[in-house]
Amino acid sequence: MSNISRRSFLQRGAAAAAAFSIVPGSILGKSHGYVAPTDKLNIAAVGIGGMGHANINNVKNTENIVALCDVDWKYAKGTFEEHPNAKKYWDYRKMYDEMGKDIDAVIIATADHTHAIITADAMTMGKHVYCQKPLTHSVYESRLLTRLAASTGVVTQMGNQGSSDEGTDLVCEWIWNGEIGDVTKVECATDRPIWPQGLNVPEKEDRIPKTLNWDLFTGPAKMNPYNEIYHPWNWRGWWDYGTGALGDMACHILHQPFRALKLLYPTKVEGSSTLLLNACAPQAQHVKLTFPARENMPKVAMPEVEVHWYDGGMMPDRPKGFPEGKQLMQSGGGLTIFHGTKDTLICGCYGQNPWLLSGRVPNAPKVCRRVPKAMNGGHEMDWVRACKENPSSRVMPKSDFSEAGPMNEMVAMGVLAIRLQGLNKTLEWDGANMRFTNIGDDETLRTVIKDGFKIHNGHPSFDKTWTDPVNAKAFAEELIKHNYREGWKLPDMPR
């Protein structure tokens, strides 16, 4: 592991911020957060083997890719080779330290558990950021990035491209125009996971490949013995690194109800699932989040609403009147059903292909800004556009952190509901203060470590191994705000 001083690269960022505060706006160059529209951004990327590669491809033709960082150089090999002039790094902190003055913006597409720290450090240095979904691994991390975006003024975007798609625009415009009446229930589903979940912790330790820095991959999480089951990609199903199918797909499927219904923090959450293990997400989940009434819009009320999430094969019931023989979930792996008092609105993943159960085709006013080719690079290029605009007249992209941050809290709350289901009650949530109000000081919680499944003489049996009872309130607090491993620390929460 490189011996990088976090203080050193953050000091550089602080110095740049100080310079920004005293230099007249008329002479600000691109190093101070404004790039002339005719200039190119100098972009660095962290996590470049999967979605990061796709994000880079969508900006590389118009911008400069100056630095690339990944903890797995085998997985990243193709991207490295495509950009031979970009400096290569294992450790993002070293990259920030050495190239902070040469970077305008950063693309982050690492495992979920490192999104927040890599993104926060870039923002405190005054760098624009594009971060893959889910935005963060916890509620607190989402709140932090939301506030950092407001305090630093950098351009931000979460990588849920459907938020820029016209399908999402239509969903919002139809609901806001009163086409389906007041919405009191929303049901969302995905056919994910398509990677293994519901697994026992591996009992053997594999040899770490020479091309992988396991310590850097682990980052702020607890150190586990390396096993090939964790990386690459399958980390999504393990709580230490990922957020399961919720984190993978909810940002594509829940963003439409969040925006269209003007949601913020739920007041109640509850979850259920197939067998819940302490280290791995379950095979299938159902989460219910209850949101309080919001301020009415001119053409539609915003009453209390239930938002349901299903995955792993669980599905909502077919709405009354749904065409026989028609599959409920279309291609794309996502489904959203808005139950209104006048009609039912159904759309697919990313908000695409919205339609009304009545068969009507609404002609609502187009009040949402359109992003051309949103699903084919337009989402990334809309972020690039905003980075280059003058801050005084800048139009923020569709999933900037002022919206993506609170929306991602919704996703993280779903994970909390699942992991705390053993309390066997509806949990009451104080969103402003990020705490549950009905978990007693003396309540305890146990979770299954191993299912102990065996077949003996043709008869199945389970000999479950459980964790020792833990204080439920303390456990919930750790899930809300993770305790980071020594040597890793988030910036302070802006006031």
Record the SSE blueprint.
Layout: H1 6-22, E1 42-46, H2 51-57, E2 64-69, H3 77-82, E3 87-89, H4 92-99, E4 105-108, H5 112-124, E5 128-131, H6 139-152, E6 156-158, H7 166-176, E7 183-190, H8 214-218, H9 244-253, H10 255-260, E8 268-273, E9 285-291, E10 305-311, E11 334-340, E12 344-348, E13 355-356, H11 378-388, H12 401-419, E14 427-430, E15 435-436, E16 444-445, E17 448-450, E18 453-456, E19 459-462, E20 465-466, E21 470-471, H13 472-480
Parallel strand pairs: 1-2, 1-4, 2-3, 4-5, 5-6, 7-10
Antiparallel strand pairs: 7-11, 8-9, 8-14, 9-10, 11-12, 12-13, 14-15, 16-21, 17-20, 18-19
Residue fraction in strands: 15-25%
Q: Which strand order spans the largest sheet, edge to edge or round the barrel?
A: 13-12-11-7-10-9-8-14-15
Low-confidence stretches: 9-32
Text of the CATH class of the largest domain: Alpha Beta
Supply the helix-strand structural class. alpha/beta
The amount of helix comes to 25-40%
Measured between the Cα atoms of the first and last residue, the distance is 33 Å
Q: How much is the radius of gyration in Å?
A: 23 Å
Global mean pLDDT: 92
Output the number of helix runs: 13
Please tell me about this protein's structure.
- This protein is an alpha/beta fold.
- It has 2 domains: 6-162 and 375-404, Rossmann fold, CATH 3.40.50; 164-369, Dihydrodipicolinate Reductase, domain 2, CATH 3.30.360.
- Helix content is 27%, strand content 18%.
- It contains 13 helices and 21 strands.
- The strands form 5 sheets. A 9-stranded mixed sheet has the order 13-12-11-7-10-9-8-14-15, with helices on one face. A 6-stranded parallel sheet has the order 3-2-1-4-5-6, sandwiched between helices.
- A hairpin with a 2-residue loop joins β18 (453-456) and β19.
- α6 runs antiparallel to α12 and α9 (244-253) packs antiparallel against α12 (401-419).
- The radius of gyration is 23 Å and the shape is globular.
- The two termini are 33 Å apart.
